[in-house]
Amino acid sequence: MTDFATTRARFHLPEGVIYLDGNSLGPMPLAAPGHVSAMMQGEWAEMLITGWNKAGWMELATGIGNRVGRLIGAEPGHVVMGDTLSIKVYQALASALELNPGRKVVLSDNGNFPSDLYIADGLLKSLGTEYELRVVSPEDVAENITDDLAVMMLTEVDYRTGRKHDMAALTKAAHAKGVITIWDLAHSAGAIPVDLAGCKADFAVGCSYKYLNGGPGAPAFIYVNPKWVDQARPALSGWLGHEAPFAFDLDYRPGAGIERMRVGTPPVIALKALETALDIWDMTSMAEVRSASIALCDQFIAGVEAACPQLTLHSPRNGADRGSQVSFRFDDGFAAVQALIARGVIGDFRAPDVMRFGFTPLYVSPGDVAAAVDIIADVISNRLYDRPEYRLKGRVT
Ligand SMILES: *Cc1c(COP(=O)(O)O)cnc(C)c1O
Predict the structure, then answer these.
(1) Whole-angstrom Cα distance, residue 83 to residue 220?
(2) Could you read off the pLDDT of 85-122 as tens digits, one per residue?
(3) What is the pLDDT of residues 343-362, one digit of tens each?
(4) N or C, which terminus of the chain has less Cβ within 10 Å?
(5) What does the pLDDT read at residue 210?
(6) What is the rounded distance in angstroms from the CA atom of residue 397 to the CA atom of residue 386?
(7) Which residues contact 257 (CB under 8 A, 6 or more apart)?
(8) Cα angle 152-155-160, degrees, rounded to a multiple of 5
């Protein structure tokens, strides 16, 4: 049994803050500054370019990929880190489309994160007018799996509502129609147990700065099923995905296995910060995190519904159908979230009227949830959000 007090003690949590936004950016592991600084001073400063070999910088992308892979049920050696999630979506989709020649339709849903849809739209436009991005409602995905689809590209957990797709069932249904699957795990990795190998998912991608706590701009990951990895042609054929980057051949030959999904020089400093977060993940299991997270979310829903009839639950009520976040709709949601942040309860707002709260057992306790509910009740019942300064929008909401 994990005592979550021990994982919580590994994070820096600012005084007076109840952090319910780890679904957007996880907090800093206390070990991160020291570990990054040791790399900078002991490796970068002293070893200079020899650090690539001496300090093993070049292996970090796959070594850390394996540690992330363990949290998402990937076969060892099939996850690599690098770039941002938007780039990884592009790579996965470009490769998946080529593996299903003759079909030109990509299915996604309108609960997907816009960047995934923008990337798909951009790629399909480059490929030609015969390609189609078909976007349906999340609840209509299953009935829209037809045998003209090349690829089904979904985000498992909806960033707004927290609604969770049934990855195993949808992947199976897609395979039955000859459709290749891409799962975006941005709101799954570190939030809920994922079994990529068991589901036979074809491709998966995700970021490491949300629930995984890797830090702002932490590198993304990509998974390719062993069945495909040696056939998948990398569309972003950068030199570090080449079979022999330092042969400097003029012709591209894809690297062995997942290495081919690397593009350019790895973000070593960011990978070092992520390592410290993964050390904390080694202290627990996804099954324990999941049951604690469902309990925190249930407690939050019950507390808010009892105290704030003005707010409408926008997430599935049943824990098994949800990721690790809870959203409520409220007309003055933006201002209410600003008023909460001013009182130390950090959640976030998603247009048009969604107040979103992430629950992360690694560092959020039932006591935090109770305290957050009291503050939310005060802000809503006493209309404390009704002030002009809470209506000013910054660049990031
Ligand atoms: C957070 C998120 C992104 C963000 O992509 P970046 O390239 O890392 O900025 C993309 N897709 C989904 C589903 C997300 O939740």
Answers:
(1) 6
(2) 999 999 999 999 999 999 999 999 999 999 999 999 99
(3) 999 999 999 999 999 999 99
(4) N
(5) 98
(6) 18
(7) 77, 78, 229, 230
(8) 140
Nearest Cα neighbor of 204 from 71, 38, 354, 21 is 71
Residue 254's beta-bridge partner residues? Answer: 242
Quote the pLDDT of residue 182.
99
Binding site membership of 160 for ligand 1 (Cβ less than 6 Å): no
**Identity at 52, one-letter amino acid code:** W
Average pLDDT of 6-15? Answer: 98
- Which spans in 211-250 are helix H? 226-229
Establish whether 184 is a catalytic residue: yes
Is there a contact between 2 and 278 (Cβ–Cβ < 8 Å)? no
Q: Please tell me whether the peptide bond between 193 and the residue prior to it is cis, using omega within 30 degrees of 0.
A: no
Above 80 in pLDDT, residue 252? yes
Classify residue 163 by its DSSP letter. B
Structure tokens at 188: 């799954």
pLDDT band at 392 (very low <50, low <70, confident <90, very high): confident
310 lines ligand 1 (CB under 6 A): no
DSSP secondary structure of 326-374: EEEE-TTHHHHHHHHHHTTEE-EEETTTEEEEE--TTT--HHHHHHHHH
Q: Which domains does the chain have, with CATH numbers?
A: 4-29+285-391 (3.90.1150.10), 33-281 (3.40.640.10)
**Count of residues making up the chain:** 397
Q: Is the CB of 187 under 6 A from ligand 1?
A: yes
Which residues have C-beta within 8 Å of that of residue 184, sequence separation ≥ 6?
Answer: 85, 89, 112, 113, 116, 153, 154, 155, 156, 204, 205, 206
Angle between helices 114-127 and 85-98 (to 10 degrees): 40
The pTM of this model reads 0.98
Q: What residue has token string 């003759």?
A: 102
Kindly calculate the radius of gyration of the chain based on its CA atoms and give it in whole angstroms. 22
Residue 209 annotated in active site: yes
